[in-house]
Design goal:
By secondary structure, the chain is mainly alpha-helical. It contains 12 helices and 2 strands, in the order αααααββααααααα. Strands 1-2 form a two-stranded antiparallel sheet.
Amino acid sequence: MEYLIICVSALIVAALTLLTGFGLGTLLLPAFALFFPVEVAVAATAVVHLLNNLFKVYLVGQSADKKVLLLFALPAAIFAMIGAWLLNFFSSIPSVYQYALGSRVLQITPVNLLIAGLIIVFAVVEFIPQFNKLSFKHHLIPFGGALSGFFGGLSGHQGALRAAFLVRVGLEKKSLIGTMILSAVIVDISRLLVYGFTFFERDFRLLYQQGGHYLVLAGTLAAFSGSFIASRFLEKITLQGLKFFIAIMLVIIAFALGLGWV
């Protein structure tokens, strides 16, 4: 049963997130958490997330806009490292509210509330016709990279902010998706340089001891399949449809963050 749940979840979520450029880790973590302790589920999700991102680079990374990628990803990587260094400080700030949902105790933190608020602002813009032609000039791209990178290093949720900003830069469909994916990989690498592998060593060891590596392999292959299937449908999706879909996903992620579900 666990293989069915993980593989179906990974396939569907990977297909969705190839288009949006974010959400795989956020949406797949609860599936792994059904079968493993939270710290082991985080490690398992991290493996699937990284390998699937690298596979997506192979699928659509060549379509990335190199100029926008440089302007966005470089400050994103730098500020992701700054956010990662400040993680210990911000993690000491108490939650503003906590509540129980079944056997889980969920916490609403100031950082996640701030990120959720920013995401909602970007998402709402997509639903207001007067803002349909709004776009960010190239001199603002480094600011968007710095903003998403900083919060990515701080909380790991840079993907939604990255997509929310890049969708307004004026890229065509394939360039938008490719640029989002390559930016994600660059920021992930910069965060790992700060976090180091010692932080994950215990969790990966627990994952292996509990036989979770086979489940991770199955989930990774399912995620590859989902990404590949989604890449075959890129030609049939309009840019406006893609923007609308991203906006819907932004709202979902924002509420999940704001309510402490992720």
